[in-house]
């Protein structure tokens, strides 16, 4: 350890300003007096940036990367503005409230083993401590939004009936798909080289799965990293709106028996096969009403939150440096 420290000091003295520049994190933006570093932006954008590994066109990849980083920076700026409001209002969240929220998350995900929960958090790039901090901030933001936005959100019966008419039209034409998948997992902190290596492995699995007579279920049992491995990658029947967008797009565009190209999600690369399709019956209005109400409230809330953040931006001093 001492020898290693000596080398670092010697290099710093030898290269002077260059070494110091590399050791200091670049400032991406300053929001009033709060600094957002480039590493924070990159970390927030990392799942989306990882998906760019499959884009072969350098120009498209550069454009998409710039868009992803901008969106991540805008999100972080909004969070800084909201956190400043929370501090100004003196809003606090107790440890007991955070623990209760943690228990709810575990319950919703069917997790009873604390070690399993920590493994799940690690896969998403969190430690137990950092996830508690994240939850505390989320609870505080929720309270602020309740105070500033919720009173403005109103859902009329006409909104619900219009939403149901649209739902019934789409649902009457829609189907459910029964699919299986093989996952090549990718760590949340994987390097671009590791992401690319996993993609190549998924491509090899795809080619194997497309061979005539290949038993996809057996292949999934042998090659998948997913939790459904022991069930031959079986995902059962699902409708639109259940899976992540990339996964859903592939599932509903494939014909029965077809195998997809590798699909990138936050868990890694998936190879998907559609086993069956079946028509879906339309759920009655009264049964759908609570879900539609929740969906419309969420949409209107997002709209008012965006307006509220824009108001905060107008009052703040924001300097973007990237």
Task: Describe this protein's structure.
The chain is of the alpha+beta class and 322 residues long. Among the domains are: 1-72, no CATH class; 175-279, Chitinase A, domain 3 (Roll). It has twelve helices and seven strands. The strands form two sheets. The chain has a four-stranded antiparallel beta sheet, with helices on both faces. Strands 2-1-7 form a three-stranded antiparallel beta sheet.
Q: What is the strand content?
A: 5-15%
Helix content: 55-70%
Q: From the coordinates shown, what is the CATH architecture of the domain at 175-279?
A: Roll
The CATH C-level class name of the domain at 175-279: Alpha Beta
Which stretches are low in confidence, meaning pLDDT under 50 for 5 or more residues running?
A: 1-23
* Rg result: 24 Å
| Strand runs, count | 7
* Helix-strand makeup class: alpha+beta
Count of alpha/pi helices: 12
- CATH topology annotation of the domain at 175-279: Chitinase A, domain 3
Task: Please outline the major beta sheet.
Answer: 4 strands, antiparallel
How are the strands ordered across the major sheet?
4-3-6-5
Overall geometry comes to globular
- Rounded mean pLDDT is 87
What order do the SSEs take from the amino end to the carboxyl end, as H and E? HHEEHHHHHHEHHEHEEHE
Q: What is the terminal-to-terminal distance?
A: 36 Å
